[in-house]
Design a protein that fits this description.
By secondary structure, the protein is an all-beta fold. The chain has no helices and eleven strands. Helix content is 0%, strand content 53%. It is globular, with a radius of gyration of 13 Å.
């Protein structure tokens, strides 16, 4: 089972930036599809971005042009760089991983709060 250490959340003003980090252990990082999802109060969880072991990235429409997902195989860490943040981006952001050898199983991090407010 994959374990996660998420960091980088916090309070930021509209138009600001944050970088979320997700350090992974307990799995083979080079087999993991890494992703970030978010859940705002009263809303369903939304997939924001994901990145394949080969660093192919995909994004929700709400994240395109503002968010960038990346990964570092040496440190076994995934990142989500978020720019031009708006109050609509306020949510708990969850890191998750899916082993390409077991595509039906996803492990989730504990989440980190991102609040965009003036």
């Amino acid at each position: 089972q994959v374990q996660f250490v998420e960091s980088g959340g916090g309070l930021v003003q509209p138009g600001g930036s944050l970088r979320l980090s997700c350090a992974v252990s307990g799995g083979i990082f080079s087999y993991l599809v890494m992703g970030w999802s978010r859940q705002a109060p009263g809303k369903e969880r939304e997939l924001v971005a994901q990145i394949t072991p080969g660093s192919g990235a995909s994004y929700a429409d709400s994240a395109k042009g503002r968010f960038t997902i990346s990964r570092d195989h040496f440190t076994k860490t995934a990142f989500l760089q978020m720019t031009d943040l708006t109050p609509d981006d306020t949510a708990v952001y969850y890191c998750h991983a899916r082993d390409i050898r077991q595509p039906t199983l996803t492990d989730w991090g504990q989440g980190t709060q991102v609040t965009v407010s003036s």
